[in-house]
Amino acid sequence: MINVLARHSREEKQGVISAGRSLLGVVAATAPLLAGCVSTSVGPSRALVENAAEAGLAYPGVKILPLTNSLADARSATPADGDFLVRFGAVPPIGSQVGVGDALEVTIWEAAPAALFGSATIDTRSLTTVQTSRPNALPEIVVGPSGTITIPFAGQIRAAGRTLRQIEQDIVASLRGRAHLPQAIVRIARNETANVTVLGDVKEPQRVPLTPRGERLLDVIARAGGTSQPLDRMTIELTRGNVTQRMAARDIVRDPRQNIILQRDDVVTAAFQPYTFTVLGAAGKNEEVRFEGVGLTLSQALGRIGGFQDDRADPRGVFLFRWEPPSLAGADASQFSTNPEGKVPVIYQVDMKEPQTYFAAQKFQMRDGDIVYVANSKLADLQRFVNILASSIIPLATVRNTVR
């Protein structure tokens, strides 16, 4: 009986050893394959990004700059793109130039004794007729496609593209010799051509007529009922011809020079949160995040994405990808791949293990189109490998035990 039990014990041990050897064989066979799967990460590792300049990327010579307090100060001192005064310049008011479609109001005087436009009054006491002079307002006249208007006894008067003063002089010249010392006053009754269009996040989008007073940017926004969101969080975009420029509304209010005089056919667009940045990798969430025209710091951006995933993120592997002018990148553009705007690729490395980084992040301004990438930590990659390994081996061990 004892011999039988001993023999059974020896067989059990040999079975366990055999099973262990089989499992080890499975591990040895599958480990290279699994390791290869794990190496195919969702994004580049910190080491790969740090060695991007030597890795032969699509944009060779990419600059990698560690985020420091001095660099954040330099970037915060650099104004964001947008300067209405520089881009559009200071222009005079549009004046009272007439265009096709405008409605004019013409008033003509004629000195007594009037020959054409005077009026006769009868003195009932002496039964005599007395000639007096009074203004004669003509019916509203619309400037036709030919650019002319018709005045009784004066004929066709060219109006489109001319000032009110020039039209008055032409009317008087045409009536001279027919009327007695004629005088004329012309004003625009309805302005259909000298307008600006106000769109976007305003309460009453509309076309605003321009006057010789010289309406400014903030004037037409106020005429449209103001912005639907707080003004200090808005961005104002101005389009003139083929040129478009954006500025934060806050900067326009703070610098009166940017509150420029508008011109005919300008388009003013008020926008709330017109800028975006994209976050990828081991962040709290991966998405495109909108932000306001007043700007957003890196620390605020990290807060909006929910920080990092503690079980995945490499705190030393936070990177911000951006296109910068060569002067800001400290580079010679001829030695780098540039985009159509002549900017060079720059990667800012953010080491969240360094306490000073948190102060620098409060000053570093985000830009439209930035990409924030958070790399996986080595421990996270190892954990992922172990999980895949375990999910592959444990079922095999379970089958083995079931068969036995």
Secondary-structure-derived class: alpha+beta
Spans of 5+ residues with little confidence (pLDDT < 50)?
19-40
Summarize the helix and strand pattern as letters: HHEHHEEEEEEEHEEEHEEHEEEHEHEHEH
What radius of gyration results from the CA coordinates? 39 Å
Distance linking N and C termini: 23 Å
What share of residues are in beta strands? 25-35%
**Helical content band:** 25-40%
Q: What does the largest sheet look like?
A: 6 strands, mixed
Q: What count of helical segments does DSSP give?
A: 11
Mean pLDDT: 80
Which word captures the global form?
A: elongated
Tell me the number of strands. 19
Largest beta sheet: strand ordering:
1-18-17-19-15-16
What's this entry about, in short?
Helices cover 31% and strands 27% of the residues. The protein is α+β, with helices and mostly antiparallel strands and 404 residues long.
Written description of the protein model:
The protein is an alpha+beta fold. The chain is 31% helix and 27% strand. It has helices at residues 2-39, 46-50, 69-77, 84-88, 164-175, 217-223, 249-254, 298-304, 326-329, 355-361, 378-403; strands at residues 63-66, 103-110, 119-123, 128-132, 136-137, 141-142, 148-151, 155-158, 182-190, 195-200, 206-209, 234-240, 243-248, 267-272, 275-281, 287-291, 313-324, 344-350, 371-376. The strands form five sheets. Strands 1-18-17-19-15-16 form a six-stranded mixed sheet. A hairpin with a 3-residue loop joins strand 7 and strand 8. The two termini are 23 Å apart. Mean pLDDT is 80; it is low at 19-40.
